[in-house]
Amino acid sequence: MSVVVNSDKVKYTDNFIETKYTYQYNKARKNGDVVEVTPISENLVLKTSKKVPKLGVMLVGWGGNNGSTFTAAVIANKLGLTWPTKKGVQQANWYGSLTQAATVALGDDVFVPFSKLLPMVHPDDIVIGGWDISSANLAESMERAQVLEPMLQQQLKPHMQTLKPKPSVYIPEFIAANQISKSNVVDDMVNSNDILYKPGEKPDHVVVIKYVPYVGDSKRALDEYTSEILMGGLNTLVIHNTCEDSLLATPIMLDLIILGELFTRIKIKRETSSDDEYTSFHPVLSVLSYLCKAPLVPKGTPVVNALNKQRACIENVIKACIGLPPENNMTLEHKLPFLMAENSKLDGEPLPKRIKMQNGQH
Ligand SMILES: NC(=O)c1ccc[n+]([C@@H]2O[C@H](COP(=O)([O-])OP(=O)(O)OC[C@H]3O[C@@H](n4cnc5c(N)ncnc54)[C@H](O)[C@@H]3O)[C@@H](O)[C@H]2O)c1
Q1: What residues contact residue 94 under an 8 Å CB cut-off, 6+ apart?
Q2: What is the pLDDT of residues 288-308, one digit of tens each?
Q3: Which InterPro entries match (predicted)?
Q4: Which of 147, 163, 175, 252 to mutate to test the pocket of ligand 1 (most atoms within 8 A of CB)?
């Protein structure tokens, strides 16, 4: 399957997909009681190289639960492994991966796999290496991690035991350095609403992390959120989540690798600039925030923690590269009679039949 965009603004050559794209955003400024908003349009050219390179990835802590599970998942998917479980035969898959298991709506009811929007590295083709202070081979690491089913481990063993991490220097801070407070993930939400939050007000917040050896990689998370509703009422949400931590992390690692590589092949310039003025994204790739617990951004730029915004950012940047506008959810073509009539003519089918098909009764 491939996606072809019919537009005189999109040019496909042997090596590139080049698109003229009008990027629109607003600048807003508070002036006393007045907020001045200035819509801005930038006419850009986005040029994406179609040449997917050979991709290697080096993991620090390769022999850990994440490193060994990631390696196992790449090999299991590449070999199309299946293994028996008490619920039946399980197949290797990339569930949880944005690039491998998500789809994107391209108009009406047409969805395409995310990986078909632009040429991307295929997970099967990634070459993995890395460092660890442990000298265990990857088969031993996989066994120690206790993440994957034994019948799968058995099949993977011959492929994993030849893989050995390069030696590394012991750095105490490396271990579990990310076990910190998550209160900053709501900062942008709090700062965006001075009706609900006074200046400088922060939510009360406590995180407790306990290491329980018996449950291993099967992590438990108990989250309780209490918020205020109308007239001082309280709304409390309690979420209990149990899952293998590394099976959550592995597809995210894959997406970081695949999208990180893709974004190096995208060059952007103003339409009026010359060809030697094409630039890449800033090396702190904040477009990947969706995949990071605490996203890094270029100095002085805002951190976006809202998950939907982070996901929309990745999707819309990739859509821009093939000349498609961001999803605006206005769907006027289904609300304004004159557009509805034109739309049905475009499809060459009378409107009632289309509606019937959309209802899934065809
Ligand atoms: N939800 C999340 O964001 C999430 C989920 C899982 C893991 N993580 C984080 O990812 C990291 C790896 O997780 P994991 O489950 O694989 O942990 P792990 O403890 O199983 O593995 C860490 C590996 O790093 C190695 N190591 C330690 N110091 C090193 C050094 N100086 N140089 C090279 N290797 C070194 C260890 O020997 C070990 O094999 C951790 O920081 C963890 O907190 C985050």
Answers
A1: 73, 77, 100, 101, 123, 251, 254
A2: 999 998 888 999 999 898 999
A3: Myo-inos-1-P_Synthase, NAD(P)-bd_dom_sf
A4: 175
